[in-house]
Each structure stands twice: as structure tokens, then as C-alpha cells.
Write a structure and sequence with these properties.
905 residues, alpha/beta, Alpha-Beta Plaits, six-stranded mixed sheet, 17% helix, leucine-rich repeat, transmembrane, LRR_dom_sf, transferase, signal
Length: 905
Amino acid sequence: MTLRDEWGINPPSWVGSDPCGDWEGITCTNSQITAITLADMGLKGGLPSDIETLSELQILNLAFNENLKGQLPASIGNLTKLNTVILDGCRFSGPIPATIGSLKQLSYLSLKNNRFSGPIPPSIGNLANLVFLDLSDNRLGDSIPVSNGTAPGLDMLNKTKHFHFSNNQLSGSIPPQLFSSNMPLIHLIFDRNNFTGSIPSTLGLVKTLEAVRLDRNSLSGSVPTSLRNLTNVSELHLSNNKLTGPVPNLTLMDSLNYVDMSNNTFDASDIPNWFSTLKFLTTLMMENTGLQGQVPQALFSLQNLETVILKNNSLNGTLDIGTNYGDQLNLIDLQKNNIANLAPIDEGSNYTLILVDNPICEGSQNNMAKNYCNVSPPNSSISTTPSNCADCSSGQVASPNCKCASPYTRTLVFLFVSFSNLDDVNYYKALSDNLTRSFQSKNLPVDSVSLSHPSWSSSYQLEIIIEIFPSGDQVSFNQTESSAITSVISNQTLEGRPNSFGPYSFLVLYTNSGGSNKAVIIGTAIGGSVLLSLLVLVGLYALHQKRKADESLSGSILLTGISNSSASGPQLKGARLFSFEELKKCTDGFSEANDIGSGGYGQVYKGILPTGQMAAIKRAKRESLQGGVEFKAEVELLSRVHHKNLVGLVGFCFEQGEQILVYEYVPNGDLRDSLSGKSGIRLDWTRRLQVALGAARGLAYLHEHANPTIIHRDIKSNNILLDKDLNAKVADFGLSKSIADSGMDHLSTQVKGTLGYLDPEYFMTQQLTDKSDVYSFGVVMLELITARRPIMQGNYIVKVVQMTMDKSKDLYNLDDILDPFIGLGTELKGVEMFVDLAMSCVEELRDKRPRMGEVVKQIENIIQIAALNAGTNPLSTSASYEEYECKDSTEDGYSRPFDYSGKGF
């Protein structure tokens, strides 16, 4: 009962006071609780210290409960029968308690993706039965502990097969004592830390190793020759370190299929002969490694070779790929070298060759090479769901068996895979078929599994969207079933994974509830991808334990800043401070009747202010409260952004433990609802042009007249609202970023956005620019003329238009995909120009896209040419974005305005 009260849940099956009475997620033996498996159940609070009373507990799986927080109690060490602990994707913080070393039966410990800090407890070395250890994606620091005769260390773990420590703050050298011939390690995952010093030669003693990831550290010195003893290693990642000396000789490592040693400072060297001896090699990445001379033709004869990336070296001479290349060859990237000539290319070849920034691409020295002197970003829209399934109703998608349902949707992030060609659907079919059988063998109500949109993250981890569909007549999984699925796939012992795929983590993509569309971070951080990749990741919530301290201090700062214009308070222009009682009164006590939307941040209520103005009032949930400094920065940003085509901030409230934002009320919903017919509003061609112009003007203001520049980062039809006169207003700045005057035209930031609207170059480089908004706006323009969602049945609207359009025909041959409601019996003048403009906005390379100011001018020109609203000025319905000026500026670029329809919080 204490746990039920602490976690704030009460599932329907939790009836009575006896948890052994068929409570879901609770397993008992002889009336004693032996397993708690409540993954992804919305648990809140912490892990109480009196959990030690569950003395027979063997399995504790609380993974992916994002509101579980606080420190792990030391009393967890008294649960001496525990053999499995999985706390992935929660928000536990502070040190990992040393008492965890008392769990002598523990074989599986996964604390991935929390906020644990401090050192790794040396006491973990006492876990003699530990097989799986995953501490990735935390804030752990200091060096790796090893035994010293009096204290234990990780070198004592003689049964452990997995060391997963990536993406922490571990430092110092990797201790040579850590490795010995007794260890059965198969995965050594140490990437993205702060390790220094040399790679210990003792690593070569662990001959059971199959994967080694030491990339993205600060390791130095030569690569030890003992690594050649690791004949079972198939994955070797040493990139982005400070390694020196000769390029290592890996001749004896016959199992290698993936090698990445890019961005190190090896001695200048010709391409080693051993490159051509690795018969299982699929991927060779040696960017910026000092290679010189001519590329040997023998390299391309490897029959399993898929990808060769040797860019930014000093390779020269004539490139001769020959005709004996392997039939798996997919990409040869030799950018930024000194290659002067190209031998004839086999006409039947289907690989991609990139020779940008080589002498051969200068002028017209070699006409043949012109085909290889441009870069086109890769686009993989592979899906294991057939493309010929019938369209499903809104909110549902087709399964591999063409059944419409709302699937359990996640992104699997594989730490490594044996292949690099993302376009081979056979890899994904094998995985989806095996996973389906695995789920069904565990009596889960799963009909099928779909995998789609594979892409590479910035750290070369494979990311795949997985959709799990319910069986029978079900259209969705209930909470119990979703939790059971999460519990299964959070355990790395999940069966049904082909050898091509290594260990994984996973991300929540969508959680749909009550009409809201919420996305939360669970799992490792999303990195780069292309076009149809991973998507909205919203909501960094503040720590609960800091809230009360921040509240009293920052509340006084805010109030002082408003009353006397103190420099420490928010600099407000036109935003009013409301009392909580005022807002409570104008919403009739925040009644359900006035509830017009909800999301991860909170509820939105319609209210009538004392002035008689209608307003949308967004009230933060308790668990979503920010600290005072963050709330202050948000209010300041919103209060200085003023434009007719942006949803405006009316005021805010910051008292009685509340954080409330008050916005102008926008009555006609969002553009997506109008295009789909859901709102009952039908937009003709005239009005669609006006909507496009209004939204473009709002964006142009943010990019070119706000100071500093603001990038919206989540432009989509759901975030363009229509007022009573159907004028467009850009809304939901929850992902916005500002570019301060730093001399840079971009921000390096984690990729966020919405599926189908994301800028591919932003995905690939993680460099956010105003051109990222331009790309998203181009997708909205295509929505305006087709009324199609960006992605329908696996088809991407940009690609559909590209493949369909024919400029030699009327309406560019787009008749069949134009929205039939767009014309309403009138001639569609200017559609071709509108399509040309949209396609320029969605150019793959950002330098080819126009700026929003140029887009505004071109839409104005299209409206004039189309001679709309004959007898009146067709531009009179919306003021130019240049008529407004930025009122103020802040250094912070975050803001979270409302979207009253419940989308985009």
C-alpha cells in the first residue's frame, strides 16, 4: 500500500489490500511479492526506503516512468534476492548507492538514461553473478574503479558479458587492470566519455569480445598491437580520439565487419594492405586519418563491402574501382582528397560515388566525373508495411497485415549493427518477423511488428521506428498491455533479434491521450538522420525537489521586476501580471466546461478576462513546473514577440505554486483541421494563399526582425492557427531557439521537430538555422495544395510531388494529388509558381533554400499574378511583417506558448 500511495497509481486490477490478489505488474510466490514489473505505467514520486520490506523480491522493472525521481535509497541493498533491476528511462539522480554491491544474486543491472552522478561504486565489483551492466546515458564521473587489495573493483566481475558505460563523464585513463583473460566480456561500450591516456594493451587479453566502442573520447598514443588478438570482434569504433602513431594493423581480426577509426592523427601512410584482407568487412570509415597515395582496386573486390568513407585525406592519382566490385557496394565517399583522374565506371553499377572537393571536380577536366561531384543527402523510407494498404482513419495506421490500428510506437536505437546499407529491407523484415514471434511466444496480444525509416544518429547508431500492432479486433493496447510490452523490450535478453543487430535502447515517440499529442524523451538522445526520421522530442521538465525553493525566490524576483522595473525582473512589453484568483474566476474555477485542450505541460482553459477579452489560459501541471529563472526567461521571450501573425501573450500568473500563461484566444482551430475537414471550414485557393502569406510573414518577422533571431523549430500545419477572419497565426514556440549575436548563423543543438517536417541537413549536422524553418514551411505549402499529411502510408509528400510533377503539362501534372476542394469551381492561377516556391523551400541543401523574407515577396507576387479578390487589394488583409519591430531581447531562446487544440505542448 505504501508503494501505491508513493507512486500515485491505482490500476483497475489493484482491488483490495492484498497485492498478491491478481494485481497487474505484481508477481507473488507463496503470498510473497517476487516481481514488480511496472514499466511505462506513469509512476510518480520515488523509490521509498521501506521497499526493503519486500524481502523476497527478485525482479524490479520500473523502466520508462519519467516521473520517478530522487535518489535510490541505500535500503535497496537489503533486497538480497534481487537478480534483475531495470530502471531505464526514469529520472533518478544523485549517487548510485554503494549498498547495491550487497545484491550478491544480481545478474542484470540496467540504470541507463537517468541522472545518476558521482563515481561508479567500487562495490559493484562484489556482484559475482552479474552478467549485464548498463550505466549509459547518466552523469557519472571519475575513473573506473578497480580492486586494490582492500577495496573491490570492476576487474572482479568474472561473469559479466556487458560493460555499457557510454555517454557519461567518466575520466582518467582506462585502467589496464580492468581486463584479463578470465573475463567473458562480449561488449565493451565506453564511447562519449572523457577518457584520456592510451588504450591499454591488456584489452587484447579479452578474446571473447565481439564489439569495442571507444570512440568520442580523448584517448591518445598508438593503438596497441595486441588488439589483433581480438579475433571475434566484428565492431571496432576508435573514431574521434587523439590517437597517433602508425595506422594499426588489424590483419588477424578476421571477424571484422565494421571499422571506424576516423578523426585521429595517425602517421601519414598509404592505404594498408590489410584493408583488402577482411573478407567480412561491410563498412570502412577512415575519414581524416592521414591516408595518402592511390586507392587500391582490390579494396572494392570484397564481396560484403557496402560502405567506404575515406574523405578528408591525401589520396591521389587515378581512382580505379574496376569491374570486380562486390554486389553489396552502396557508397564510396572520397570527398576532400587529391584524386585527379577516374577510370571508366561500369555502366551497370548502382553504388554512389562522391568526389566533391577533388581536383577532378575542378572545371571540366573530366566530363564523366561531373556525375560524382555533387552530394545528395541519403533518404531511406524503407518500411516493412506494404505500400498498397488502404488508407486508415485519422490516428490509425496500417499494419504489415493491412489492419488499421493505433500501434505501440517507439524508436529502437541499436548500439551497432553489422551492415551500413540502410536500403536493404531484408534486414528489417528478418528482425520484424522474429520480434513478432518473440512477443507472441510470451502470450502478448501482438498481431505484427512494423519497422520503418532507418537512419544513422550522429554517433553512428542505427535508429528505426518500430510499431507494434494489437491482435484480434483490438485497435490499440491498454495500459497493462503497453506496460508488458515495455517490460519485455526493456530487457536486453529479448529473443528474436538476428545477429545483424546488436544491443539497443529505445525512445518513446508518441503518447496519445485525451486528444493531446505529447512526446517525451526516453532512452538515448536522438541524433541526426534524414527526411523521414525521428521526431518531436518535447518537454524537459524541472526537478520537483528544486521547485519550492525556486518558487519563493523567483516569485519575488518576478513581482519586483514588474512593480519597479528592476533589472532582475522580466522586461515585459504589454504582458500583464494576473492573480490566481482572477484567472480562477474567469475560468469558472478551471471547470471542465472551459477545458479546451491538454498536453504534457498542462491544461488549457477558455476564459473571459475582466476586460471582456476572450483568452486561452494554460495552467502548468505540478510535475511540469519550471524553476523561477526558467519561467522568467520564458515570459520575457514571449512578451517581446509581437506580430499580427503570431499568437500573442496577454499575461501570466506566478503565485500560490502556480505557473500560468494567458494567450489571445484563436477560435477557428488549426490549419490541419481545416485541410482535413475536421473543423468544418473549407479553404479555397484564395484563402490558402492568404494563409500561406500570413504564416510566412510571421516567420519572416522571427527570422529577420526579432532581436536576437528566433528559430521556431516546429513549423507544421497543427501549429498554424486561424483567427475569426481566418488569418494565420503561428503558434507553439515550445521548441524555439534564439541565435544571439555570436557571429554564427547556426546553433549546434539536439535534433527536435516533427516527423515529416524536419530539415534533412539539420538531422545530418545537428546545426539548426533559419533555413530549417524554411524547409518545414515548404512542407506546409505542399499540404496547402494537396490537403495530405506529410507522411501517408509511408509516402512522403515531398517525394510524391517530386515524382509526380511534370512541368511540361498543365498544373504540372499534379491534378490527381491536388485537394479537390481547393478550386471550388474557379481557375487555379499561380499554382505552378506556388509549387516551384514550395520545392525550392524543401531543397535538400539549406544554401539552396530562400529566406523567409524572399518567400513572403514571392507569395505576394503569386497573389498579384493570380488577380485574386478582383477590385480590391489582394494584400490588404494582412499587415507586412516589416510593420512590427522587436520590442526587447533576452539571451534565452526557449518559449512554450499555447496551442489550445491540445497539440504541440
